[in-house]
From TrEMBL:
Residues 14-103 form the STAS domain. It holds the Pfam family STAS. PROSITE patterns: STAS. The lineage of its organism: Bacteria, Bacillati, Actinomycetota, Actinomycetes, Mycobacteriales. This is Anti-anti-sigma factor. CDD domains: STAS_anti-anti-sigma_factors (cd07043).
């Protein structure tokens, strides 16, 4: 059974691409997430990945993020901060909780 996930890529007011995901990211739907992530990363600029509406992610999602980690700025649901830190992703990518200011 597939877990509900929506992924879209928008352009922010400053012109930067933002990948927004909502729902849960796991092995049942990570291919859609990874495909959108791969398409949005251009290698020249930072991609903002908004996971503030993601309630759950597993190692499949971490594995999709790691290859692009150095070019990502992730805004995460506070519920995800522990798994992002324990996985080591927080050492590779810029990650902040959605409750923190964007200074």
């Amino acid at each position: 059974m597939s877990t509900p996930l929506t992924v879209r890529v928008d352009r922010a007011a400053d012109g930067q691409l933002v990948l927004r995901a909502a729902g849960e990211i796991d092995a049942s739907n990570v291919a859609d997430f990874a495909e959108a992530l791969d398409a949005a990363v251009d290698g020249d600029s930072t991609l903002n990945v908004d996971l503030s509406a993601v309630d759950y992610l597993d190692s499949a999602a971490i594995n999709a993020l790691v290859p692009h980690a150095e070019s990502l700025q992730i805004i995460a649901n506070p519920l995800l901060m522990r798994v992002l830190t324990v996985s080591g992703l927080a050492e590779l990518a810029k990650i902040r909780s959605a409750t923190e200011s964007a200074d």
